[in-house]
């Protein structure tokens, strides 16, 4: 969706301000597509993020900023949308863990020409 793509472009631009517009668009499109695929796998496999996992993420965040525990707690209490910023990466990690459990990886040596054919197809 165009709105998701433009939002991701803005996010990447803030993180990587010197990136060209072409590169920004390519990276944003890749991230949006990946997010959609991961969300669909999560939906199909009933992978969810629990309140306990969100709370653990908040606790990790608090540990990273000693002395600012109360401000961090207040931030999350006053900004419900901030939970979504935590939920996304947790869900992505759980979906990736699910995928890695299901696949088997084998190593093999490939020639340069074979690698080129794989990339081009």
Any descriptors?
6 helices; 121 residues; extended; mainly alpha
How far apart are the termini?
A: 26 Å
Shape: extended
- Write the element-wise H/E pattern from the N-terminal end onward: HHHHHH
Helical coverage, percent range: over 70%
Radius of gyration: 19 Å
Q: Treating each run of at least 4 consecutive H or I residues as one helix, how many helices?
A: 6
**What share of residues are in beta strands?**
under 5%
**Overall pLDDT confidence:** 91
Structural class: mainly alpha
The biggest sheet amounts to: none
Q: Quick one: how many beta strands?
A: 0
The parts where pLDDT drops under 50 for at least 5 residues are none
Kindly describe this structure.
By secondary structure, the chain is an all-alpha fold. The protein is 75% helix and 0% strand. The chain has six helices and no strands. α3 packs antiparallel against α4 and α3 crosses α5. The longest helix has 24 residues. It is extended. The two termini are 26 Å apart. The relative contact order is 0.09. The model has no long low-confidence stretch (mean pLDDT 91).
Draw up the topology in text.
Elements: H1 2-15, H2 21-44, H3 51-63, H4 69-78, H5 82-102, H6 112-120
Helix pairs in contact: 1-2, 2-5, 3-4, 3-5
Tell me briefly what this model is.
This protein is 75% helix and 0% strand. The chain is mostly helical and 121 residues long.
């Amino acid at each position: 969706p165009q709105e998701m793509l433009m939002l991701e472009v803005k996010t990447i631009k803030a993180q990587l301000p010197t990136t060209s517009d072409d590169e920004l668009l390519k990276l944003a499109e890749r991230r949006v597509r990946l997010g959609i695929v991961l969300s669909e796998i999560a939906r199909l496999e009933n992978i969810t993020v629990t309140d306990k996992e969100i709370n653990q993420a908040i606790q990790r965040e608090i540990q990273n900023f000693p002395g600012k525990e109360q401000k961090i707690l207040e931030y999350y209490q006053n900004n419900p949308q901030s939970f979504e910023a935590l939920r996304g990466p947790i869900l992505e990690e759980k979906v990736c863990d699910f995928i890695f459990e299901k696949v088997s990886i084998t190593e093999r040596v490939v020639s340069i020409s074979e690698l080129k054919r794989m990339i081009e197809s």
